[in-house]
Amino acid sequence: MSTRLIYFAWVRERIGKPQEDVELPAGIETVADLLRWLKSRGEEYEHALQYPDVIRVAINQEHVEHREKISGAREIALFPPMTGG
Amino acid sequence: MPGAVVPTVRIQAEDFDVAAETARMTQGRADIGAVVTFSGLCRDEAGRLAALELEHYPGMAEAEIGRIAAEAVRRWPLQGLTAIHRHGRIAPGENIVLVVAASTHRQAAFEAANFLMDFLKSRAPFWKKEHHTDGSEGGWVDAKEADDEAASRWKQAVPKRN
Hints:
The complex is a heterodimer.
Chain A: E1 2-7, H1 9-15, E2 19-23, H2 31-39, H3 43-48, E3 56-59, E4 62-64, E5 75-79
Parallel strand pairs in A: 1-5
Antiparallel strand pairs in A: 1-2, 3-4, 3-5
Chain B: E1 8-12, H1 18-26, E2 34-41, E3 49-56, H2 60-75, E4 78-86, E5 88-90, E6 95-103, H3 106-123, E7 126-132, E8 137-140, H4 145-152
Parallel strand pairs in B: 1-4
Antiparallel strand pairs in B: 2-6, 3-5, 3-7, 4-6, 7-8
Protein backbone atom coordinates (compact mmCIF):
# COMPACT_ATOMS: atom_id res chain seq x y z
CA MET A 1 0.00 0.00 0.00
CA SER A 2 1.47 3.35 -0.92
CA THR A 3 1.41 6.31 1.42
CA ARG A 4 1.08 9.92 0.33
CA LEU A 5 3.64 12.25 1.85
CA ILE A 6 2.90 15.99 1.76
CA TYR A 7 5.39 18.74 2.52
CA PHE A 8 4.86 22.38 3.45
CA ALA A 9 6.86 25.62 3.73
CA TRP A 10 10.64 25.15 3.96
CA VAL A 11 10.30 21.38 4.22
CA ARG A 12 8.61 21.46 0.79
CA GLU A 13 11.20 23.86 -0.64
CA ARG A 14 14.17 21.85 0.61
CA ILE A 15 12.82 18.48 -0.55
CA GLY A 16 11.89 20.13 -3.84
CA LYS A 17 8.36 18.77 -4.27
CA PRO A 18 4.99 19.35 -2.64
CA GLN A 19 4.08 15.68 -2.32
CA GLU A 20 4.93 12.15 -3.34
CA ASP A 21 3.57 8.63 -2.99
CA VAL A 22 5.99 6.19 -1.42
CA GLU A 23 6.07 2.50 -0.60
CA LEU A 24 7.26 2.32 2.98
CA PRO A 25 9.80 -0.43 3.57
CA ALA A 26 9.16 -3.04 6.24
CA GLY A 27 10.20 -1.94 9.70
CA ILE A 28 8.98 1.65 9.42
CA GLU A 29 6.51 1.66 12.29
CA THR A 30 6.51 5.12 13.82
CA VAL A 31 6.78 8.71 12.67
CA ALA A 32 10.33 8.78 14.03
CA ASP A 33 11.20 5.71 11.87
CA LEU A 34 9.72 7.46 8.83
CA LEU A 35 11.77 10.62 9.40
CA ARG A 36 14.94 8.56 9.82
CA TRP A 37 14.25 6.63 6.60
CA LEU A 38 13.35 9.73 4.59
CA LYS A 39 16.48 11.50 5.73
CA SER A 40 18.57 8.74 4.16
CA ARG A 41 16.98 9.16 0.72
CA GLY A 42 19.23 11.93 -0.58
CA GLU A 43 20.80 15.24 0.23
CA GLU A 44 17.59 17.25 -0.29
CA TYR A 45 15.90 15.10 2.36
CA GLU A 46 18.96 15.33 4.58
CA HIS A 47 18.78 19.11 4.25
CA ALA A 48 15.05 19.28 5.04
CA LEU A 49 15.15 16.83 7.93
CA GLN A 50 18.53 17.69 9.39
CA TYR A 51 16.92 18.45 12.76
CA PRO A 52 14.06 15.94 12.97
CA ASP A 53 12.96 17.23 16.39
CA VAL A 54 11.66 20.48 14.90
CA ILE A 55 9.60 18.74 12.20
CA ARG A 56 5.87 18.65 12.93
CA VAL A 57 3.84 15.77 11.55
CA ALA A 58 0.17 15.18 10.80
CA ILE A 59 -1.36 11.82 9.96
CA ASN A 60 -4.61 11.96 8.02
CA GLN A 61 -4.74 15.71 8.77
CA GLU A 62 -4.35 15.45 12.56
CA HIS A 63 -1.28 16.44 14.57
CA VAL A 64 0.70 13.50 15.97
CA GLU A 65 3.81 12.98 18.10
CA HIS A 66 6.92 11.36 16.64
CA ARG A 67 6.28 8.19 18.63
CA GLU A 68 2.92 7.68 16.92
CA LYS A 69 2.45 4.49 14.88
CA ILE A 70 1.88 5.12 11.19
CA SER A 71 0.15 1.90 10.18
CA GLY A 72 -2.91 2.64 8.09
CA ALA A 73 -1.92 6.23 7.35
CA ARG A 74 -3.15 7.37 3.93
CA GLU A 75 -1.63 10.81 4.16
CA ILE A 76 1.33 11.95 6.23
CA ALA A 77 2.30 15.62 6.20
CA LEU A 78 5.68 17.02 7.31
CA PHE A 79 6.08 20.70 8.06
CA PRO A 80 7.88 23.29 10.20
CA PRO A 81 6.30 24.76 13.36
CA MET A 82 3.24 26.75 12.33
CA THR A 83 3.18 30.53 12.06
CA GLY A 84 -0.42 31.40 11.25
CA GLY A 85 -2.73 33.78 13.05
CA MET B 1 -27.78 23.89 28.72
CA PRO B 2 -28.28 25.88 25.52
CA GLY B 3 -28.36 24.13 22.15
CA ALA B 4 -24.92 23.32 20.83
CA VAL B 5 -23.38 26.23 18.97
CA VAL B 6 -21.90 25.19 15.64
CA PRO B 7 -18.80 27.30 14.99
CA THR B 8 -18.32 28.92 11.60
CA VAL B 9 -14.85 28.24 10.19
CA ARG B 10 -13.69 29.61 6.85
CA ILE B 11 -10.33 29.47 5.10
CA GLN B 12 -10.25 31.87 2.18
CA ALA B 13 -8.01 33.97 -0.05
CA GLU B 14 -10.37 36.94 -0.12
CA ASP B 15 -10.74 39.58 2.56
CA PHE B 16 -13.48 39.52 5.21
CA ASP B 17 -15.73 42.23 6.62
CA VAL B 18 -15.56 42.42 10.42
CA ALA B 19 -18.86 44.30 10.77
CA ALA B 20 -20.67 41.92 8.44
CA GLU B 21 -19.39 38.86 10.32
CA THR B 22 -20.48 40.37 13.64
CA ALA B 23 -23.91 41.25 12.23
CA ARG B 24 -24.31 37.74 10.85
CA MET B 25 -23.86 36.40 14.38
CA THR B 26 -26.11 38.84 16.22
CA GLN B 27 -28.91 39.76 13.83
CA GLY B 28 -32.38 38.71 14.87
CA ARG B 29 -31.27 37.79 18.39
CA ALA B 30 -31.79 39.55 21.70
CA ASP B 31 -30.02 37.07 23.98
CA ILE B 32 -26.41 37.97 23.18
CA GLY B 33 -24.84 40.34 25.72
CA ALA B 34 -21.21 40.39 24.57
CA VAL B 35 -19.38 40.12 21.29
CA VAL B 36 -15.59 40.06 21.16
CA THR B 37 -13.89 40.38 17.79
CA PHE B 38 -10.19 39.96 17.20
CA SER B 39 -8.62 40.88 13.86
CA GLY B 40 -5.02 40.08 13.05
CA LEU B 41 -3.49 42.34 10.40
CA CYS B 42 -0.35 42.25 8.32
CA ARG B 43 2.09 44.93 9.51
CA ASP B 44 4.84 46.49 7.39
CA GLU B 45 7.69 46.00 9.90
CA ALA B 46 8.73 49.67 9.65
CA GLY B 47 8.55 49.70 5.86
CA ARG B 48 10.68 46.56 5.38
CA LEU B 49 7.84 44.20 4.48
CA ALA B 50 6.13 44.31 1.06
CA ALA B 51 3.82 41.35 1.71
CA LEU B 52 3.30 38.13 3.57
CA GLU B 53 2.62 34.96 1.68
CA LEU B 54 0.53 32.52 3.70
CA GLU B 55 0.80 28.88 2.80
CA HIS B 56 -1.72 26.48 4.30
CA TYR B 57 -2.64 22.80 4.38
CA PRO B 58 -6.02 22.67 2.64
CA GLY B 59 -8.41 20.35 4.44
CA MET B 60 -6.38 20.17 7.63
CA ALA B 61 -6.54 23.95 8.14
CA GLU B 62 -10.35 23.80 8.27
CA ALA B 63 -10.31 20.59 10.33
CA GLU B 64 -7.81 21.82 12.92
CA ILE B 65 -9.43 25.22 13.44
CA GLY B 66 -12.75 23.36 13.66
CA ARG B 67 -11.32 21.15 16.42
CA ILE B 68 -10.01 24.19 18.36
CA ALA B 69 -13.35 25.98 17.93
CA ALA B 70 -15.25 22.90 19.11
CA GLU B 71 -13.08 22.84 22.24
CA ALA B 72 -13.85 26.53 22.87
CA VAL B 73 -17.57 25.82 22.56
CA ARG B 74 -17.17 22.95 25.03
CA ARG B 75 -15.30 25.13 27.54
CA TRP B 76 -17.30 28.36 27.48
CA PRO B 77 -21.03 29.10 27.28
CA LEU B 78 -20.96 30.70 23.83
CA GLN B 79 -23.81 31.80 21.62
CA GLY B 80 -21.72 32.09 18.49
CA LEU B 81 -18.16 31.54 17.34
CA THR B 82 -16.58 32.41 13.99
CA ALA B 83 -12.99 31.95 12.83
CA ILE B 84 -11.79 33.10 9.42
CA HIS B 85 -8.19 32.73 8.24
CA ARG B 86 -6.88 34.03 4.94
CA HIS B 87 -4.19 32.48 2.76
CA GLY B 88 -2.17 33.66 -0.21
CA ARG B 89 -0.42 37.01 -0.62
CA ILE B 90 -1.42 39.63 1.97
CA ALA B 91 -0.14 43.22 1.94
CA PRO B 92 0.59 45.36 5.02
CA GLY B 93 -2.61 46.84 6.41
CA GLU B 94 -4.74 43.94 5.19
CA ASN B 95 -6.57 41.46 7.37
CA ILE B 96 -5.14 38.00 8.05
CA VAL B 97 -7.38 36.43 10.66
CA LEU B 98 -10.69 37.08 12.39
CA VAL B 99 -12.24 35.59 15.52
CA VAL B 100 -15.73 36.56 16.68
CA ALA B 101 -17.04 35.15 19.96
CA ALA B 102 -20.49 35.90 21.38
CA SER B 103 -21.84 35.11 24.81
CA THR B 104 -24.28 36.35 27.43
CA HIS B 105 -21.46 38.00 29.39
CA ARG B 106 -18.11 39.44 28.38
CA GLN B 107 -15.78 37.09 30.24
CA ALA B 108 -16.64 34.00 28.23
CA ALA B 109 -16.46 35.93 24.96
CA PHE B 110 -13.05 37.45 25.80
CA GLU B 111 -11.60 34.16 27.02
CA ALA B 112 -12.91 32.08 24.14
CA ALA B 113 -11.55 34.52 21.55
CA ASN B 114 -8.19 34.57 23.33
CA PHE B 115 -8.10 30.77 23.58
CA LEU B 116 -8.96 30.36 19.90
CA MET B 117 -6.18 32.75 18.82
CA ASP B 118 -3.58 31.12 21.08
CA PHE B 119 -4.26 27.67 19.68
CA LEU B 120 -4.71 28.88 16.15
CA LYS B 121 -1.20 30.38 16.21
CA SER B 122 0.49 27.21 17.39
CA ARG B 123 -1.70 24.46 15.84
CA ALA B 124 -3.43 25.71 12.68
CA PRO B 125 -1.36 24.60 9.66
CA PHE B 126 -0.36 27.97 8.18
CA TRP B 127 3.13 29.25 7.40
CA LYS B 128 4.14 32.85 6.70
CA LYS B 129 6.83 33.82 4.24
CA GLU B 130 8.07 37.40 4.06
CA HIS B 131 8.61 39.39 0.89
CA HIS B 132 10.70 42.52 1.38
CA THR B 133 10.21 45.95 -0.17
CA ASP B 134 13.74 45.80 -1.65
CA GLY B 135 12.57 42.85 -3.79
CA SER B 136 14.34 40.18 -1.78
CA GLU B 137 12.62 37.13 -0.42
CA GLY B 138 12.69 37.43 3.34
CA GLY B 139 12.30 33.76 4.09
CA TRP B 140 9.95 31.86 6.37
CA VAL B 141 8.86 33.44 9.62
CA ASP B 142 10.16 31.54 12.66
CA ALA B 143 7.65 30.20 15.14
CA LYS B 144 7.80 31.98 18.49
CA GLU B 145 8.24 30.07 21.71
CA ALA B 146 5.99 32.66 23.34
CA ASP B 147 3.12 31.44 21.14
CA ASP B 148 3.54 27.85 22.37
CA GLU B 149 3.65 29.11 25.95
CA ALA B 150 0.49 31.15 25.36
CA ALA B 151 -1.30 28.00 24.23
CA SER B 152 0.00 25.85 27.07
CA ARG B 153 -1.28 28.20 29.78
CA TRP B 154 -4.84 27.10 28.94
CA LYS B 155 -4.02 23.58 30.13
CA GLN B 156 -4.10 24.82 33.72
CA ALA B 157 -6.92 27.29 33.39
CA VAL B 158 -10.32 25.93 34.27
CA PRO B 159 -12.93 28.44 33.14
CA LYS B 160 -16.09 28.97 35.09
CA ARG B 161 -19.26 28.01 33.32
CA ASN B 162 -21.82 30.54 34.47
